[in-house]
Design goal:
It comes from Streptomyces tibetensis. InterPro entries: DNA-bd_dom_put_sf (IPR009061), MerR-type_HTH_dom (IPR000551), MerR_fam (IPR047057), TipA-like_antibiotic-bd (IPR036244), TipAS_dom (IPR012925). This protein is mostly helical and 253 residues long. It has 13 helices and three strands. The chain is elongated and about 70 Å long. The chain has a three-stranded antiparallel sheet with strand order 1-3-2. A hairpin with a 5-residue loop joins strand 2 and strand 3.
């Protein structure tokens, strides 16, 4: 089979102009032309485009991508292994960054009573107060914000490590639940949704079921939150949102 430039652009989520540019510079030359002279792409062309987009997503310049793909001694499987290694490393870095964002967005890191050395030990090279101004602007006048400020101001390094460990353990268990195809409205998912709410209540502020529902919606609508949960497992943000709604309904109906 072969495909038009418009079809390929739709498959890959790129613009027709991008494909024209790749063709012009010899990075992705369409294997065929129609009788009218229009580009037609083969399955092999699509495979090459996928490799190009992988490397571009990882930040490689076009010249280096071309050199990598046109190396006559390169094994296609070696490309995939290298990309997997690079993506895995990037995912881990993004996971850590997203975790720090989540802490900040829920006012978890406001008023930290930690030395610079302790902050680095707990949070790595992510600034825990990166979104402090946004947090204060959005929730500064609420009782929940004040409660979180009061509690977290006294937390030690060990407290924050425990908080992160509990959150990581919860995330692993929720990912396993999804891997087992448990529905968000099932008992297991609602139990973990309730545990999620209780974690907030224990460490940060009194999280009512209504507040928890609002958080669930934010986990889906705010790309920073969604990225955090999607790294744990694709689709987790929506699954958790639905489990939160179901759990709130069974406790408030």
């Amino acid at each position: 089979m072969n495909y038009s430039v418009g079809q390929v652009a739709g498959f890959a989520g790129v613009t027709v102009r991008t494909l024209h540019h790749y063709d012009d510079i010899g990075l992705l030359v369409a294997s065929e032309r129609s009788h009218a002279g229009h580009r037609r792409y083969s399955d092999a062309d699509l495979d090459r485009l996928q490799q190009i987009l992988f490397y571009r997503e990882l930040g490689f310049p076009l010249e280096e991508v071309a050199a990598l793909l046109d190396d006559p001694d390169a094994d296609p499987r070696a490309h995939l292994r290298r990309q997997h290694e690079l993506l895995t490393a990037r995912i881990e870095k993004l996971r850590k960054m997203a975790a720090a964002v989540e802490h900040a967005m829920e006012a978890r890191t406001m008023g930290l009573n930690l030395t610079p050395e302790e902050r680095f030990e707990v949070f790595g090279d992510n600034d825990p107060e990166q979104y402090a101004e946004e947090v204060e602007e959005r929730w500064g006048g609420t009782d929940e914000y004040a409660d979180s400020q009061r509690r977290t101001a006294s937390y030690t390094k060990e407290d924050w490590k425990r908080i992160q460990a509990e959150a990581a353990d919860w995330g692993e268990r929720y990912g396993a639940l999804m891997a087992a195809d448990e529905p968000p409205t099932g008992e297991a998912a609602m139990t973990l949704a309730e545990e999620h709410r209780q974690h907030i209540c224990t460490w940060f502020y009194e999280c009512s079921y209504e507040i928890h529902r609002c958080l669930g919606e934010m986990y889906v609508s705010d790309e920073r939150f969604k990225a955090f949960y999607e790294v744990l497992r694709p689709g987790l943000a929506e699954h958790l949102r639905d489990a939160i709604v179901a759990n709130a309904a069974r406790h408030t109906s």
